[in-house]
Structures are given as C-alpha cells and as structure tokens.
Amino acid sequence: MIKYVIPDTAAFYIANYYFRKCLFNCSLYNHINSAIDIFNIDCNINKLILEIEPILKIKYNLKVRNTNPLKLSKYM
Q1: For residue range 35-52, what is the model confidence (pLDDT) as tens digits?
Q2: Pairwise CA distance, residues 37 & 57, whole Å
Q3: I need a surface site. Which of 3, 6, 16, 49 has the fewest CB within 10 A?
Q4: Are 12 and 52 a contacting pair, CB within 8 Å?
C-alpha cells in the first residue's frame, strides 16, 4: 500500500487541488501529509516526495518548482 497506492493517491490529491486552484500556501510535505491522513498510516513523507514528483510529471504534466511553499507549473 505504501509503495503503490499512497504515492498515486497523494499525487492525485495535489494535482486535483492544483487544477481547481485550491492549493493552500504551505509546503509539499504538508500537502502530502494531508493526503495520506485518510489512510491512517505512518509513512516516511520525505521518501514519498521522491516517488510523488515523477508521478506528478508523468500522469498530470506538472512540475514542482518550489516545495516550500508548494509551487507547481505545467510542462509545455
């Protein structure tokens, strides 16, 4: 679950909020922590960041420009 489901779900959460223009002015760490709260599992969020950034790039065409506060942009 930690290897496959959580990174994909967190990336969906972040991308969905980005496209709806609902991202709050906080860090990527905080957004991932909010996304994984639904699973009630303790995860290494720093490791998840490394897995989530490629998912955002490949599936959602988003690039992480800054992690604190989180700034995303679309690839051209």
Answers
A1: 999 999 888 999 999 999
A2: 23
A3: 3
A4: no
Is residue 39 a contact partner of residue 6, using CB atoms and an 8 Å limit? yes
Cα(72)–Cα(41) distance, rounded to whole angstroms? 26
Percentage of residues of the chain with pLDDT beyond 70: 100
Q: Quote the distance between the C-alpha of residue 55 and its chain's center.
A: 9
pTM of the model: 0.90
* Cα distances (Å, whole numbers) of residue 22 to 2, 16, 58: 26, 8, 21
Under a CB-based contact definition with an 8 Å cutoff, are residues 46 and 36 in contact? no
Ranges of beta strands (E only) in 1-76 are 62-67, 70-74
Q: Per residue in 5-34, pLDDT tens?
A: 999 999 999 999 999 999 888 999 999 999
